[in-house]
Amino acid sequence: MIRTTKLFLVTATYVALGSSASVEAQTAKEPHDTHICAFNGLTYAELGASYQDASPEAQAVISWITQQAGLRNDFDLHGATFERSPIAFAAIRHGHRQIVYDVDKFSAKNGELAWEDIAILAHEIAHHINGDTALHKADSHAKELTADFYAGMIVRRLGGTRENALAVTKMLSEEGSETHPPRKDRENAFGSGWDHADRLVRNGQ
In sequence order, which ranges of the chain are alpha helices (DSSP H)? Predict the structure, then answer.
């Protein structure tokens, strides 16, 4: 676990992440074929989601990642409970870049952050910046591995170890699915991303 400073959490709570007041009403009107990029491959229709405000810790993770990566923090972040958990997903809803995470699987509490949460949310951010939420790409395995690679890079950039980057893979399917690669391939992608960032850091980049 990473203990955050009080200043860090206070700063994160003031980042504009979008109002959650109408998120349930909005998603209730979405068609069942809504395209999402789920961390473990579930479709929107399978989720059975009940939405809530993002926690300060989740907001802090998004703020930390975007600050370090030089990204604009305009993500509409929400927590949710699910009948079937996607762990987290990214989607475009009403023109907003939305990220939703499973509150029951989010480890950060009481001002502490977990590397698994950082890797998961970095993965979903990667889907947005790579355009995966707007396009139905033919090779979904490739886009998942690219997002895993990015998440591994982010963990290294934020000071995490290679083991920290790989910790999240224990939550993944060993066999994979039609949309998501098997665990071994995803471990390799997270690890390769961490290795790439490590070389850059060691070269002063």
Answer: 6-13, 23-28, 56-69, 115-129, 140-157, 162-166, 183-202
